């Protein structure tokens, strides 16, 4: 256009050149007066074209701010989805509503531990809170079980104590029985020795004491032996349970706390980072809201700005056309140059729009179908620029292979709004990092120790043996039938006491008159009688003593027998209770092992709490819908109107400059004159000042207007002015004064 302005001479003719010389333009057929109306009509059409382009731009750009609002809303929704993904509920809601920092929330609510408990499901925070709760609860339960296992050991020790007491009672019972047997035999033996010594057989009572049979004694021995064996079995149980309890309460508990603290420490680190990210996202959400407000504040003038910019072409073209109609040189000149200046910048703006539109189209590669699946080029760009591997823990993740699956991640929720798990809709399975959350290897040694302790608590066989043998001992003792419940013990004792009183005086007096009564001797008693009397007194007194002891032994034996039966029965009953307690403790320990493994293994369930659908929604809504579709359609719809405006500017400028050349610039004040002679051909206007010699015109002063030969002169009489004899001298004199006179026109 600059070349056009220079060569066509917007304001002067000094630079007119070649075919653009004004005299050549004047010779063209389109410069005739009768064709001017078509140029005016064409100029008006270009003006209307620019107006239509501006209207098209305004209409198509009227939804720009709606699309911008939608983009901001989509970004905010995605941020909130991300916040809910991390920690739904109290934390983001409070940060958003009360304008507090995360540090203030920590200070006011007791730190991260409490804040994490407020994360509601489904969210990573709730998952971490569940992990924390499960592991702590499992460890607390384990410690409780381990502590209570001491009660089982105490019960076993009580049973062992009672079994020892029962064994001692059995032994005491046997000793009493054997002692009774010995005393019974001694009475019987002394009676047999006493009878032949004198004449007092009739005074000796008929003693009917029966010794405890060997079978009964053997039953007591069997009871003792079974009790000893039962105690040995019980001691084996106690030793095993004691070791298990010691392991559970010491080494295992220590290892359990250490591993628990390690896992909880890792979780706590994640808690800190998670809450910080939530805070950052809420802050960014505020920034987005602020930006949205600032952008919306420009809506009143920002929405029509593109239409106004390109609509300037209407003003410039209109003012040039108005200058033409008003025949104002300055107006056409000023707005012509303004039109050129804005044309250059609007070409640049249109170029940017077209370039950005093409770049957007090529980058997205949606082929006019704006879906996440169809815009393959954009995914390729993501894969290319985000390529490479990232090490997560010990797992190498190929981002280039996984980024597409994350961008296309479907949003799968069930009717209740909770994540409906599938292996293609969560970060963990897509990235293939599930093994990084397998913490069971940390707890496996502890679980193995717990299982070993549980095996040591498996004392069913030993306790059954203990019970069986104790029951057998009880049966053996219960079958014992004591023989010490004799009758007439008092009469027998009195008979021996009476005999003792009769024989005792004889021992003091050999001349006692009763010697012949008890012995075969006369008075004084013979030596043999004296010796027999001495022996008889000894035997009688031994019988008295043993009868008295037997009389005391009977209740003692009965008491020991009852005590033994009671103790053994108590042991049998305790074995049932202790066996149940040991079995319950064993099951509790085994359940601790299972619960501990389950609690730690639950960490691997993070894939059910890490849906990536919100990223897929962000990609679909913000990147595809807002960036690809909305941006492309906005620029693409504005381009035709902008092109129409620029085309109208270019063509209109060309037309109006030609229209300018259809007339001459005459007066210094800028007025336009038709400058046409009678033949209808435009003639160049004379420059200001004295005409150059080579262009001076012959001015013929005549007494009357010259009669030029012209088909447009109605007074032409067919005679040449030079043919008039009266004018010839004057004309010839003037011709001689002028060196060169081109025949262009005559002013009169």
Keywords:
two-stranded antiparallel sheet, 6 strands, rod-shaped, mainly alpha, 748 residues, disordered C terminus, 2% strand
Task: Write up this protein.
The protein has 22 helices and 6 strands. 69% of the residues lie in helices and 2% in strands. The protein has 748 residues and is an all-alpha fold. The protein has helices spanning 2-8, 22-26, 36-61, 64-87, 90-97, 102-109, 112-117, 124-194, 214-297, 299-302, 305-326, 329-364, 376-385, 399-407, 427-431, 440-456, 460-478, 489-508, 515-518, 527-601, 613-661, 728-737, and strands at 88-89, 119-120, 389-392, 395-398, 664-665, 672-673. It is rod-shaped, with a radius of gyration of 65 Å. Strands 1-2 form a two-stranded antiparallel sheet. Strands 3-4 form a two-stranded antiparallel ribbon. A two-stranded antiparallel ribbon has the order 5-6. Helix 9 runs antiparallel to helix 17 and helix 18 packs antiparallel against helix 20.
Helix content: 55-70%
Low-confidence stretches: 1-9, 664-723, 733-748
The radius of gyration is 65 Å
**How many helix segments?**
22
Main beta sheet: 2 strands, antiparallel
How are the strands ordered across the major sheet?
Answer: 1-2
Portion in strands: under 5%
The helix-and-strand class reads mainly alpha
Query: Any idea what the shape is?
Result: rod-shaped
- The H/E string reads HHHHEHHHEHHHHHHEEHHHHHHHHEEH
What's the rounded overall pLDDT mean?
Answer: 77
Distance between the termini: 41 Å
User: What is the number of strand segments?
Assistant: 6
């Amino acid at each position: 256009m600059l070349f056009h302005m220079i060569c066509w001479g917007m304001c002067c003719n000094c630079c007119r050149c070649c075919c653009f010389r004004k005299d050549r333009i004047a010779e063209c057929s389109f410069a005739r007066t009768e064709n001017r109306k078509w140029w005016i009509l064409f100029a008006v059409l270009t003006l209307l074209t620019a107006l239509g382009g501006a209207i098209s731009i305004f209409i198509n750009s009227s939804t720009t701010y709606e699309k911008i609002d939608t983009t901001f809303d989509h970004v905010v929704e995605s941020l909130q989805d991300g916040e809910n993904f991390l920690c739904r509920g109290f934390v983001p809601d409070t940060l958003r509503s009360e304008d507090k920092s995360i540090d203030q929330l920590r200070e006011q609510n007791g730190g991260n531990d409490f804040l994490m408990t407020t994360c509601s499901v489904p969210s990573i925070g709730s998952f971490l809170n569940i992990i924390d709760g499960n592991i702590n609860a499992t460890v607390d339960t384990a410690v409780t079980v381990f502590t209570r296992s001491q009660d089982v050991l105490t019960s076993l020790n009580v049973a062992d104590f009672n079994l020892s007491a029962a064994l001692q009672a059995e032994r005491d019972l046997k000793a009493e029985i054997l002692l009774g047997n010995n005393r019974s035999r001694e009475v019987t033996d002394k009676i047999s020795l006493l009878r032949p010594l004198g004449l007092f057989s009739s005074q000796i009572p008929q003693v009917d004491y029966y010794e405890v049979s060997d079978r009964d004694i053997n039953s007591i021995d069997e009871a003792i032996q079974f009790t000893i064996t039962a105690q040995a079995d019980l001691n084996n149980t106690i030793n095993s349970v004691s070791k298990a309890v010691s392991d559970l309460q010491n080494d295992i508990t220590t290892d359990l706390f250490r591993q628990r603290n390690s896992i909880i420490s890792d979780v706590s680190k994640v808690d800190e980072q998670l809450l910080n990210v939530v805070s950052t996202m809420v802050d960014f959400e505020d920034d987005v809201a602020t930006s949205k407000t600032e952008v919306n504040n420009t809506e009143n003038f920002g929405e029509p700005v593109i239409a106004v910019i390109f609509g300037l072409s209407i003003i410039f073209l209109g003012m040039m056309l108005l200058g033409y109609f008003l025949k104002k040189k300055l107006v056409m000149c000023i707005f012509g140059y303004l039109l050129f200046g804005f044309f250059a910048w609007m070409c640049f703006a249109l170029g940017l729009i077209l370039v950005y539109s093409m770049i957007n189209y090529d980058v997205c590669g949606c082929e006019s179908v704006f879906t996440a699946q169809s815009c393959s080029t954009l995914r390729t760009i993501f894969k290319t620029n985000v390529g490479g591997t990232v090490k997560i823990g010990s797992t190498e993740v190929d981002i280039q292979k996984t980024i597409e699956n994350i961008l296309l991640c479907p949003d799968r929720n069930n009717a209740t709004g909770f994540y409906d798990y599938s292996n293609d809709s969560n970060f963990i399975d897509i990235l293939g990092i599930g093994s990084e959350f397998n913490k069971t290897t940390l707890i496996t040694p502890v679980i193995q120790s717990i299982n070993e302790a549980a095996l040591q608590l498996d004392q069913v066989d030993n306790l059954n043996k203990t019970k069986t043998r104790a029951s057998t001992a009880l049966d053996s003792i219960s079958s014992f039938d004591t023989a010490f419940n004799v009758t007439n013990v008092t009469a027998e004792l009195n008979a021996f006491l009476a005999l003792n009183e009769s024989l005792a005086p004889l021992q003091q007096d050999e001349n006692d008159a009763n010697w012949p009564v008890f012995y075969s001797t006369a008075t004084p008693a013979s030596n043999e009688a004296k010796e027999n009397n001495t022996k008889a007194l000894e035997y009688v007194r031994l019988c008295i003593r043993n009868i008295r002891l037997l009389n005391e032994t009977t209740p003692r034996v009965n008491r020991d027998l009852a005590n033994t039966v009671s103790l053994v029965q108590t042991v049998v009953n305790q074995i049932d209770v202790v066996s149940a307690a040991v079995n319950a403790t064993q099951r509790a320990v085994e359940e601790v092992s299972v619960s501990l493994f389950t609690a730690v293994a639950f960490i691997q369930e993070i894939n059910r709490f890490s849906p990536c659908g919100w990223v897929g929604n962000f990609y679909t809504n913000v990147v595809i819908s807002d960036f690809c579709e909305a941006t492309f359609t906005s620029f693409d719809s504005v381009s035709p109107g902008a092109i129409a405006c620029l085309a109208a500017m270019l063509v209109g400028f060309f037309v109006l400059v030609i229209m300018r050349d259809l007339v001459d610039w005459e007066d210094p004040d800028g007025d336009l004159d038709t400058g046409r002679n009678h033949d209808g051909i435009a003639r160049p206007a004379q420059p200001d000042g004295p005409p150059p010699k080579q262009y001076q015109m012959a001015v013929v002063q005549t007494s009357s207007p010259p009669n030029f030969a012209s088909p447009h002169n109605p007074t032409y009489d067919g005679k040449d002015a030079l043919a008039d004899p009266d004018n010839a001298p004057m004309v010839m004199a003037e011709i001689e004064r002028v060196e060169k006179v081109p025949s262009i026109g005559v002013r009169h």
